Amino acid sequence: MHILIAPDSYKGSLSALDVAEAMETGAKRVFPGAAFDLVPIADGGEGTVDALVAATNGTFRETRVKGPKGDPVNAKWGLFGDGKTAVIEMASASGLPLLAPDDRDALNACTYGTGELVRAALDEGVTAIILGIGGSATNDGGTGFARALGAKFLDGSGNALPPGGAALANLASIDLSGLDPRLAKTDIRVACDVDNPLCGPRGASAVFGPQKGATPAQVKQLDAALGVFAAVAAKTTGKTQVAETAGAGAAGGLGAALLYFTGAALMPGVTLVLDAVNFDARVKKADLVFTGEGRTDFQTAYGKAPAGVAQAAKKYGIPVVCLSGGMGKGADDVLAQGIDAIFSIAPGPISLQECLENGKELLQNAAERICRLLKAGAGLKI
């Protein structure tokens, strides 16, 4: 028997690799002779660096960069085992978790640190970069990212604009003569699970600005500033459709900057991750697939990791079991995505704190119970 184990992390408790190893331990108690393939995954958001480094036997890097308000932060990123692909989460340099709620500043927060991480990856000689752009604290149209890589954003007098999205109201020209030439030679794939354009009622400022601290008046100010940026960037690059492109408004407009100034492709996060670990070739060898996440509910069916795993497995008719920390409203929706059965690791009434503290043991025991049931079922005469 060949069992493939491909879970997401249990956020706040266990990494995707921890989850996979716990599932393997439990399953081995029942199927000691089985072959196991552990493929920790993510959906392009938090945990993507950890999952892809583990899945490819890669290594971690840490780079000191500017945080969203310019303060230095130590940002973790990763290299695949082959040393040719870097994986970066922009939230590690420019994310909301880096700021206290009362310190959020949508007008001035900046993606410069994310650009510094990309530059560090290029300095390592990579030929491909996977970039997750969820969880941003910024609304600067990705201009900080581009500045860190050599672009200049100038006012009508030829002076460099200060950081942040509000300053873009005074943008008159963009100088790309100093843009790092390595960007054009690098395969950049961006995990992007939102379809918002750059501006307007569904744009970066209107939809995501309030969670980054923007007042209603500041939302209008930022939306207008990003409109100026879009006009100047389109004129500079000749890319006239970027602002309306699905995903351009992701991460406060970083999606747009990536489209304007690099050859990046925006992709659903779980699709990107599964492609990166060569999942299709690995899953077709399996007889059984385990997946899971911290909580399975109605959201799981909309592009979350277990749904992506199940859809890939179903192309080959392979049964999929989802083993999650908890189950919420709409959990059964994933059954239409190719998952055959869903289980919670909780053996009975139990507090959240107990689940968090004993997650590994609960996972091991739940995987064992499921495998015993599968073994018993294999002997049924139907």
Rg calculated over all Cα atoms: 22 Å
Query: What is the topology, as strand order, of the major beta sheet?
Result: 3-4-5-6-9-10
CATH topology label of the largest domain: Glycerate kinase, domain 2
* Cα end-to-end separation: 22 Å
What's the number of structural domains?
A: 2
Considering the protein shown, what is the CATH homologous superfamily of the largest domain? Glycerate kinase, domain 2
H/E element sequence = EHEHEEEHHEHEEEHHHEHHEEHEEEHH
What is the count of β-strands? 15
Mind describing the biggest β-sheet? 6 strands, mixed
Helical fraction equals: 25-40%
What's the average pLDDT? 93
Which residue ranges are poorly predicted, with pLDDT under 50 across at least 5 consecutive positions? Answer: none
Count of individual helical segments: 13
Principal-axis shape equals: elongated
How is this structure best summarized?
This protein is α/β, with parallel strands linked by helices and 382 residues long. It has helices spanning 16-28, 48-55, 91-94, 112-123, 143-148, 204-208, 216-237, 254-261, 269-276, 279-283, 305-314, 352-357, 359-377, and strands spanning 2-5, 35-38, 59-66, 72-79, 85-89, 128-132, 152-154, 173-175, 187-191, 265-267, 288-291, 295-296, 320-324, 326-327, 341-344. Helix 1 (16-28) links the parallel strand 1 (2-5) and strand 2.
